[in-house]
Amino acid sequence: MGQPVLRRTARPVSDFGDQELRRLVADMSETMRAAPGVGLAAPQIFAEQRVIVFRVPSDRGDGDEIPETVLINPEIEPLDDHLSLGWEGCLSLPRLRGLVPRFRRIAFRGIRPDGTPVEGEASGFQARVMQHEVDHLDGILYIDRMHDTRLLCFDSESADFRYQDYCDSDDDV
Ligand code: NI
Q1: Which residue has the higher pLDDT, 123 or 166?
Q2: Is the pTM of this model over 0.85?
Q3: What are the tens digits of pLDDT across the range 31-72?
Q4: In the chain, what are the domains?
Q5: Ligand 1 centroid, distance to 51 Cα (angstroms)
Q6: 30 assigned to active site
Q7: How far is the CA of 61 from the centre of ligand 1 (A)?
Q8: Distance from the CA of 117 to the center of ligand 1, in angstroms?
Q9: Residues 6+ apart with CB under 8 A from 10
């Protein structure tokens, strides 16, 4: 955080199947796994292109595990107005964690690295991760989405953090 690349708007990918894109996707995947993290956007490794990678581990989602997925030029839109609060961290804001409101259900579309278009719907943790990563492509960090910075804390404190002490509502915000 503080590095200008994280605040700029990334440009769409127009050249599919070229060597540079393959290398970028491989770098992102390696960086995410090494962290380890559940998502990464290209600007986080100084590539100003609209590419995200994410995964949903079996213990984080609402159902099935979602293997590592790369989405290029992703677009998302909320399917309804429901927001929920959930913990987020970010490899670009080490050691911090925040309770962030996100849309519960989204529709998405994008392009696979091989150029194939893809579209679908996501909910829960997958929807959260996708919103977080797509925000990175527009220069937005999760702290910008928080309604209340009292819900930001250090990793080491998050297990004991009682957000009920700071929120009037339960899960909905
Ligand atoms: Ni992030």
Answers
A1: 123
A2: yes
A3: 999 998 999 999 999 999 999 999 998 887 777 899 999 999
A4: 4-165 (3.90.45.10)
A5: 13
A6: no
A7: 18
A8: 24
A9: 41, 42, 43, 47, 48, 49, 50, 51, 136, 137, 138
